[in-house]
Amino acid sequence: MARKKLVILGAGESGIGSAILGQKKGFDVFVSDSGTIKNKYKSVLYENGIRWEEKQHTEAEILSADLVMKSPGIPEKVPLVQKLMEKGVPVISEIEFAGRYTQAKTICITGSNGKTTTTLLIYDMMKRAGLNVGVAGNMGKSFAWQVAEEDFDLYVIELSSFQLDGMYEFRADVAILLNITPDHLDRYDYEMQNYVDSKFRILQNQRPEDYFIYCADDEVITSEIEKREIDAQMIPFSIKNKLAFGAWIENNELKVSINHNSFAMSIFDLALQGKHNTYNSMAAGLSGVVFRLRKEKIRQCLTDFQGVEHRLERFIKVHGIEFINDSKATNINSTWYALESMSTQVVWIVGGVDKGNDYSMLYDLVKTKVKAIVCLGKDNRKIIEAFDCIVKDIIDTDNMEEAVRNSYFLAGEGDTVLLSPACASFDLFQNYEERGQMFKQVVRNL
């Protein structure tokens, strides 16, 4: 009997992981990437005898597939993907593919902001509690690669809307929805409802014994919940209101209560400070209670978690000036959270590839917290025009050395220099990680 053919579009981490898993499960695997495949991935393909091509997509080869795993970075509107769909070839995401070959429990986290922090916080908590747990999604080893080579009982998975779009049969045992604010709307025909629908795919196939943990302060989420029939057990968390069930703040204490299982701790003891991080800590604490972890373990993890590189990373003080690397803030909302959590005067480094940003939602925070702005990008006119009447000192730069040097001169003792770009990094850097690493390197050289 002929083997089924699995074609993989995109040879990044998720693509190579899917190729390894596909081969292990008896598929005839072919990997195709329109760009250049990294050498470390090429060597894996060679070692495993997997056919591949780069810098092209051979249509005849691809259209003969029985199943296609598409990288989340490739939009569905691409003609090749449209042809596959017209032909009736299933096009799925790596998470969907890997999910078919594991019986492990899953905790899945999505939202416009805070996904990575919450995912790593929950992973850290489960690991410390002694569970046999893996972490997947947009970090580390891909889910498919781990399913192929590891034997975890539980996965904590960060899910972007693009990954959710290619998921059909997959089911999350615990689904966490942190927030929904406009992002990536270019992929959703500039229709907010399309993006909301994408995020709510995290609930698909959930059963009454599963859990849906969500932010009750997010109006988009709460209004969408009213339109839907949800089978899972719903657990809200809120900073604004006291709840009888879920997680909330009362007298500066974070309280969690689910089915007579409860615990409390001071919000001042949380390792991650700022309103957005309180939400992240609540979501993590709730998943700990759902999995019946010991209260001391949950409390300990929320108290001393180290945080995420490039996300509000306080890494050095130079002459009394604190430098914070928030390079992962690639949209307005992330930067809003960053500025909101600042308790000193800020010299703010901002700029890059604008995703249609509306800077007006930052005006109030910038008026009260920002003493100077340093723009870092190839074209900073929109930022300069947006804040010209609010901030006296605005400097235009197009390289990291100049941006850091100007920030250092503009800041005084007790101030903070915050790299929180609110934009993608592709004009000057390969990705937000490279931008953050270079920022830290230049600051250390001051």
Automatic annotation (TrEMBL):
<dbReference type="GO" id="GO:0008764">
    <property type="term" value="F:UDP-N-acetylmuramoylalanine-D-glutamate ligase activity"/>
</dbReference>
<keyword id="KW-0547">Nucleotide-binding</keyword>
<keyword id="KW-0067">ATP-binding</keyword>
<dbReference type="GO" id="GO:0009252">
    <property type="term" value="P:peptidoglycan biosynthetic process"/>
</dbReference>
<dbReference type="InterPro" id="IPR013221">
    <property type="entry name" value="Mur_ligase_cen"/>
</dbReference>
<keyword id="KW-0963">Cytoplasm</keyword>
<keyword id="KW-0131">Cell cycle</keyword>
<comment type="similarity">
    <text>Belongs to the MurCDEF family.</text>
</comment>
<keyword id="KW-0961">Cell wall biogenesis/degradation</keyword>
<keyword id="KW-0436">Ligase</keyword>
<dbReference type="GO" id="GO:0008360">
    <property type="term" value="P:regulation of cell shape"/>
</dbReference>
<dbReference type="GO" id="GO:0071555">
    <property type="term" value="P:cell wall organization"/>
</dbReference>
<keyword id="KW-0573">Peptidoglycan synthesis</keyword>
<comment type="pathway">
    <text>Cell wall biogenesis; peptidoglycan biosynthesis.</text>
</comment>
<dbReference type="InterPro" id="IPR005762">
    <property type="entry name" value="MurD"/>
</dbReference>
<feature type="domain" description="Mur ligase C-terminal">
    <location>
        <begin position="310"/>
        <end position="423"/>
    </location>
</feature>
<dbReference type="GO" id="GO:0005737">
    <property type="term" value="C:cytoplasm"/>
</dbReference>
<dbReference type="Pfam" id="PF08245">
    <property type="entry name" value="Mur_ligase_M"/>
</dbReference>
<dbReference type="GO" id="GO:0005524">
    <property type="term" value="F:ATP binding"/>
</dbReference>
<feature type="binding site">
    <location>
        <begin position="111"/>
        <end position="117"/>
    </location>
    <ligand>
        <name>ATP</name>
    </ligand>
</feature>
<dbReference type="GO" id="GO:0051301">
    <property type="term" value="P:cell division"/>
</dbReference>
<protein>
    <recommendedName>
        <fullName>UDP-N-acetylmuramoylalanine--D-glutamate ligase</fullName>
        <ecNumber>6.3.2.9</ecNumber>
    </recommendedName>
</protein>
<comment type="function">
    <text>Cell wall formation. Catalyzes the addition of glutamate to the nucleotide precursor UDP-N-acetylmuramoyl-L-alanine (UMA).</text>
</comment>
<keyword id="KW-0132">Cell division</keyword>
<dbReference type="Pfam" id="PF02875">
    <property type="entry name" value="Mur_ligase_C"/>
</dbReference>
<dbReference type="InterPro" id="IPR004101">
    <property type="entry name" value="Mur_ligase_C"/>
</dbReference>
<keyword id="KW-0133">Cell shape</keyword>
<dbReference type="InterPro" id="IPR036615">
    <property type="entry name" value="Mur_ligase_C_dom_sf"/>
</dbReference>
<feature type="domain" description="Mur ligase central">
    <location>
        <begin position="109"/>
        <end position="285"/>
    </location>
</feature>
<dbReference type="InterPro" id="IPR036565">
    <property type="entry name" value="Mur-like_cat_sf"/>
</dbReference>
<dbReference type="Pfam" id="PF21799">
    <property type="entry name" value="MurD-like_N"/>
</dbReference>
